[in-house]
Amino acid sequence: MSVRPENSAPCPICKKEYAAKDSAFFPFCSERCKLIDLGKWIDGDYRIAGGTATDWDVEAGEKDEL
Prior knowledge:
With 66 residues, this protein is of the alpha+beta class. It has helices at 31-43, 53-60; strands at 8-10, 17-19. The protein contains two helices and two strands.
């Protein structure tokens, strides 16, 4: 079992260990990994479970008012 330095963290994209405390892109190790993650959200690779907003509005009896 290896011991990780106190301020070291694995990048969630590339899994590389990096100095989290010194990273301008935390929780990512680089701008590249940050942009890859953003692309995954935009492409729909990541999703938050639940119904659509329309379903929630109808169930609650709410209407959009401008």
